[in-house]
Amino acid sequence: MIRRGTGGRDARIARRAERPQAPPFITRQLPPYELLSEEGLLAVESHADQLLSEIGMEIRGDEVAVDLWRKAGARIENDCRVHVPPGLARALVQGSAPAQFTQQARNPARNVRIGGMNTVFAPAYGSPFVTDLDRGRRYGTLDDFHNFIKLTYLTPWLHHSGGTVCEPVDVAVNKRHFDMLYAHIRYSDKPFMGSVTTAARAADSIEMCRCLFGADFVSRNCVILGNVNVNSPLVLDGEASRVIRTYAAARQAAVCVPFILGGAMGPVTTAGALAQCFAEALFCVALTQLESPGAPAILGNFLSSMSMRSGAPTFGTPEPALAYLAIGQLARRLGVPLRCGGNLCASKVADAQAASESANSLWPAFLAGANFMLHAAGWLEAGLAMSYEKFVMDVDQLGAFHTLARGLALDENGFALDAFREIGPGKHYLGSKHTLTNYQTDFYDFDLADNNSYEQWSAEGSRDQLSRANARWKRLLEEYQPPDLDPAVDERLREYIERRKSEMPDAIV
Amino acid sequence: MIRRGTGGRDARIARRAERPQAPPFITRQLPPYELLSEEGLLAVESHADQLLSEIGMEIRGDEVAVDLWRKAGARIENDCRVHVPPGLARALVQGSAPAQFTQQARNPARNVRIGGMNTVFAPAYGSPFVTDLDRGRRYGTLDDFHNFIKLTYLTPWLHHSGGTVCEPVDVAVNKRHFDMLYAHIRYSDKPFMGSVTTAARAADSIEMCRCLFGADFVSRNCVILGNVNVNSPLVLDGEASRVIRTYAAARQAAVCVPFILGGAMGPVTTAGALAQCFAEALFCVALTQLESPGAPAILGNFLSSMSMRSGAPTFGTPEPALAYLAIGQLARRLGVPLRCGGNLCASKVADAQAASESANSLWPAFLAGANFMLHAAGWLEAGLAMSYEKFVMDVDQLGAFHTLARGLALDENGFALDAFREIGPGKHYLGSKHTLTNYQTDFYDFDLADNNSYEQWSAEGSRDQLSRANARWKRLLEEYQPPDLDPAVDERLREYIERRKSEMPDAIV
Asked: N or C: which end of chain B has fewer CB within 10 A?
């Protein structure tokens, strides 16, 4: 991309037009990586079955869900421990859950297809803190929330607006979801996620979608995702269970995510944590089908290892990478879309540690065939902080994976025989017809990489990537212009929010 | 690893004993990644055949090599352009080149097996500059050369001492190879590489191996590698050709490496650059077999893309990653060991750019099944500088790939059913018997990662990984103690070097 000085509105529009074109989501031409043999996959599946049947999964505080399982044939112990006969959860999922589905965006050109050979990138989720080089680390606010939605809207390499891109702690806990949903709708036209902190907030999120898309459209289409954490090990909290059922009942997609810090919420050995993770996610996806057969759902996982020096969670380590690669295979066999990976790291600053750890998460998740990748941009500090600089760095990396996903073009132009005939041995290809024809489309060029000579780099101030990233996100925010929104829709949304907010006092939970 | 204050000799020995144990090389349990279909692989092979037969490869200034090709059935044009009939190069290689071989180290416990499912990591090669945070960027010296050999000796994650770990520019160009070889032998006991700048220096390198191992042993074993660059596109310089033949004649392994900067030394499209790279390397490996059937050899490649903004080489981009994945398949079909990848980057500093680019090179090369990975540690600035800090950062990453390579342990301990039975739902595994039994061996922990809380990290000075790496390599060098070397061998080596140096005046080429 050609860099220019900042100018007026026209210059900004011109720069916008220069942004690389990208499809609304990735369709991978690359085959997924196959880590385990058939025998290995069967072993993981049978251990997951054994966990669900012998140990069982507890649903703590949702009798309706327990009853759904009872009626499906599970044995219930102490009114909450659900022992699922081997094969039942899998049969429930395979019987009705869609292998792929489309999440609608308010701009249909931004619709994303989730499942199969498709990959959708979404920004990081849930950080209480935000950080940038100018203002340092602080609690996130609604302004920060808006900024990350705008940055996500501006990049072609994120396909999805995400959900809680940071916690807007300046808004009451019980009212944040209204402002977050409104911001996703108002400042972007990409698909988004709804609240999962209570079933009532999930219902509000869906209701706001009805204001946006119309109730009839929402009843027939997936327009929102809800990312629900399992309380690993082997517990599904009643509120989480109701949130899953709320999304499923509305035919919207619950993303069912065990969060397993190996050695704490699961065994320290990866095979066991993997079987557990698969069992827990399978149990929740099966619950969506018990609630509403045919509702879309996503099999999630979030696996981390632990520093045995300090007990702290670690990221970018090889154990979760192996688990990602295996769970990709398990999800394909099950036939449901997979949420996996992200640009995860434990570093407190967007340095080499952050970049290595992030790449070590992104590579295996992508090759595993992840269909929905949350936390793909901005994640720092084991998820405690959303970083403006890390965000644009991650996005730059995601761009490269769009090229990688296309695979090798083994056609006549790709093999370039005419160029070899034109140039022959010992000469260079810079001026060849083939190079001139192809140079604008070939070679992904990292926007934030400095490939200049040492001398030129020194003359320009010896800036590292962190410093260049700081300039980059500020320039992007300057360029931002909101997409149009039908004023009648805007009015409906604002009225709904005003009414609902007035019905409840501010609360801190 | 527990960190202690520095102390006397006993403390250093104790710290040495603490270093992680690692095998002398990696034997991957992970299956290699399969990018291309059979049809795609045949297309690349047939285009490589077409390049060798129709365009041809020039050997400029080595009549002996041209004659070897003529006798083998190639058509020679203008005394130097070698047109190889389709299939001939492949038949020559498959007829006699070993699919795997062992390179002997002077310490037999450090012998490495090159080929098959094995991977050998070696440090970066050939930088004129070195850099560290204390002294900045400067020309490399013999002292720096010694330091990098010592650092390589100290880490369990590099299996090979490498070759020109940096250029010792304080030694005359025509005498450097003596000091470099001596340093590899004296300061390490890992296997190493010899000189390739002239055939005479290659012969000196082999002669020094005879001083070390005995002539008879050298005639029967591979004890040294020579890394020879092809003058892409489609030219093999006469001196390079003689160097290849010198190593092959002595039954030592030439690593045959096309260096293709796409758009300059080859076409801008990746399929064409890949076919060219494979053709050039195949041609050189075939030459080793014409010179000495059965001699070990390695199929190399070095592919880079180019910034279309500046014409500078770029690293960690997706196009070389795709080429790596494909050439891994081609090498396996050919049945020769593959050199591929490394921790490559264009960054001038060991920042996030350096780390991302390096990971984007390391991951595909490793999954491609690279057997010998040069440039695995220290590489900065497109190879112009060897960085002390980057070196220890890269090594930390290589350690993780040892764990990754082992794959998932799907055994009774791995699945941890007893732990699930002990703990059940909703409780933590920190104190479980299974965790206590396994915690010391499970979870790779990056030595240079900071996984502490933000507060603790701040209290400790908010250091980034670059700063921690600076402390790390200095501490390692303090700990260094040379391995024993038989004084009689040392004497023979010193005598050989003294005599040979006295036979020539210093020269600058």
From this structure: C
Query: Which of helix, strand or coil describes residue A449?
Result: coil
Give the model confidence (pLDDT) of A367-411 as tens digits: 999 999 999 999 999 999 999 999 999 999 999 999 999 999 999
Q: What is the mean pLDDT of chain A?
A: 95
Instruction: Kindly state the helix (H) or strand (E) to which residue A139 belongs, with its residue range.
Output: strand A136-139
CA distance A324 to chain B (A): 11
Q: Would an 8 Å CB–CB cutoff place B30 in contact with chain A?
A: yes
- Which residues are within 8 A (CB) of A362 and not within 5 positions of it... i.e. 6 or more apart? A341, A342, A343, A373, A376, A397, A398, A401
Q: Compare all CA atoms of chain A with the CA of B312 and give the residue at the minimum distance.
A: A451
Token readout for B90 is 């492949």
Tokens 């092959």 correspond to B248
Q: Judge contact between B497 and B182, C-beta under 8 A.
A: yes
Closest CA to A293 of A25, A97, A87: A97
> Complex ipTM above 0.85?
yes
- Rounded to whole angstroms, the Cα distance separating B282 from B336 reads 10
CB contact under 8 A, B348 and A275: no
B351 reaches A (C-beta below 8 A): yes
Residues on chain B touching A443 (C-beta within 8 angstroms): 262-263, 268, 305-308, 314, 317, 319
Q: Side chain identity at A430, as an amino acid letter?
A: L
In angstroms, the CA A120 to CA A159 distance is 6
Chain A residues inside the 8 Å CB shell of B26: none
Cα A347 to Cα A357: distance, rounded to the nearest angstrom = 8
User: Hey, what are B253's tokens?
Assistant: 């392994």
If you measure CA to CA, which chain B residue comes closest to A137?
A: B454
- Are A450 and B420 within 8 A, CB to CB? no
> Chain A contacts of B446, Cβ < 8 Å?
314, 316-317, 353, 356-357
pLDDT in tens, A262-298: 999 999 999 999 999 999 999 999 999 999 999 999 9
What string of DSSP letters covers B281-307?
A: HHHHHHHHHHHSTT--EEE--EEEEE-
Per the CB < 8 A criterion, the answer to whether B293 and B95 are in contact is yes
Starting at the earlier edge strand, list the strands of the sheet with B372-373.
B26-27, B118-121, B372-373
Report the 10 Å Cβ neighbour count for B248. 26
Tokens 């043999």 locate to: A37
pTM of the model: 0.96
Identify which of A268, A309, A352 has the shortest CB distance to residue B429. A268
Q: Which of A381, A449, A493 is nearest to B351 (CA)?
A: A449
- pLDDT, tens digit (0-9, with 9 covering 90-100), for A317-347: 999 999 999 999 999 999 999 999 999 999 9
Contact B319 A444 (CB under 8 A): yes
